[in-house]
Design goal:
single chain; seven-stranded parallel beta sheet; 15 helices; 9 strands; about 50% helix; about 10% strand; binds coproporphyrinogen III
Length: about 350
């Protein structure tokens, strides 16, 4: 039987020597692949996430095509919120849209908890995937309380997060109640995934970079800690914590209880390694737009990421954010080859 704890990804997450730098891509399962569009034809995004056969197929596609060192579960950060009973949907080209935005103490009190039975199809998909993936680990994930709250309060995607911040700064008690509910939902969703067999979890706080360090510490960190420490208490799986534009927050995001810190493309990894406590590996951080440049430029930039990554205790190669929809899949395949070939220590 394969012991996934010896895989390159898990070794890197623990800061141990690796045969090669492990590589996977955020949003590797998805819009840039023609076979994804075929598998999704006629199915809504969230509907697909509750169809184990579709989840298994879509999760496997990038593993087959790219030879990445990890699969990431095909799902979405808002799925458990929907499964708990909140009226929301994902609109193509827009993102999550919430029918009745959450803005008052009464709205928060009415938020349901997640019954694990409501995401049983996800557990079934994870069990199927673990069997199919063999020696390749599966990454589970959830949205962090701030990023989830932003969708619920704004009612949809937002650039400035104005209503979310107005609630946070103006009615601290209601904010903490909301963030705690969402932490409980995220934690319950991750527990289901871990119990079904995922080997690593990533907590996405994609929009936390909109906050100052002081506000992050006061309003957000305690709730992300609830999720990350809740998983630590539940199982021995590495926890990756990621956000966009979070260069000023990397140390705090580690302090929230992460084993690995995801870094976007704005902070070089050698600098990022100085911003997190000693011994914490980093994940990242090629600019997702860089893969649109001619191959020699992509290769040189990838080499630079690898070089800088050696300054950290461990490095998981990734893009600095998700794969952009028009990305050429062949470039990603070449990138995986390069990372594998050129990260081998003599
Ligand atoms: O390969 C993977 O990474 C796994 C799949 C995955 C999806 N969503 C599938 C998806 C993951 C990890 C997510 C997480 C997610 N969802 C995040 C955090 C990651 C990040 O990029 O920062 C966020 C903020 C969301 C919310 C969300 N869902 C957005 C902003 C969108 C895009 C809307 C659009 O079409 O532009 C979605 C929809 C979504 N989630 C798609 C996929 C493949 C596109 C759906 C489609 O094919 O129509």
């Amino acid at each position: 039987m394969v012991d996934l704890r010896d895989s390159a990804l898990l070794r890197a997450c623990r800061g141990e020597p690796v045969p090669h730098t492990p590589v996977w891509f955020m949003r590797q399962a998805g819009r840039s692949l023609p076979e994804y569009r075929a598998a999704r034809a006629g199915l809504g995004m969230l509907e697909s996430c509750l169809r184990p056969d579709v989840v298994v197929e879509v999760t496997m596609q990038p593993v087959r095509r790219y030879g990445v060192d990890a699969a990431i579960l095909f799902s979405d950060i808002v799925l458990p919120v929907k499964a708990a009973g909140v009226d929301l949907d994902i609109e193509p080209g827009v993102g999550p849209v919430v029918a009745n935005p959450v803005r008052s103490a009464a709205d928060v009190a009415a938020l349901p908890q997640l019954d694990p039975a409501a995401v049983e199809p996800v557990a079934e998909a994870v069990r199927g995937l673990v069997g199919e993936l063999g020696a390749t680990p599966l990454i589970g994930f959830a949205g962090a309380p701030f990023t989830l709250a932003s969708y619920l309060v704004e009612g949809g995607p937002s650039r400035e997060h104005v209503r979310t911040k107005a609630l946070m700064y103006g009615d601290e008690q209601t904010w903490h109640a909301l963030a705690d509910r969402l932490a409980q939902i995220a934690l319950a969703f991750l527990r289901v995934q871990v119990d079904a067999g995922v080997s690593v979890v990533q907590l996405f706080d994609s929009w936390a970079g909109t906050l100052s360090a002081d506000d992050y510490t006061r309003y957000v960190l305690p709730h992300s800690r609830t999720v990350l420490e809740g998983i630590r208490a539940h199982a021995d799986v590495p926890r990756i914590h990621f956000g966009v534009g979070t260069g000023e927050l990397l140390g705090l995001m580690a302090a929230a209880g992460a084993d690995v810190i995801g870094v976007d493309w704005r902070v070089p990894l050698d600098e990022a390694a100085k911003r997190v406590p000693a011994g914490i590996p980093v994940q990242g951080n090629l600019d997702p737009a860089a893969v649109f440049a001619p191959w020699p430029v992509v290769a040189e930039r990838a080499r630079d990421v690898l070089r800088r990554g050696t300054a950290a205790t461990g490095h998981v190669f990734n893009l600095g954010h998700g794969v952009l929809p028009d990305t050429d899949p062949d470039v990603l395949a070449r990138l995986v080859e390069l990372v594998h070939a050129e990260s081998v220590t003599p």
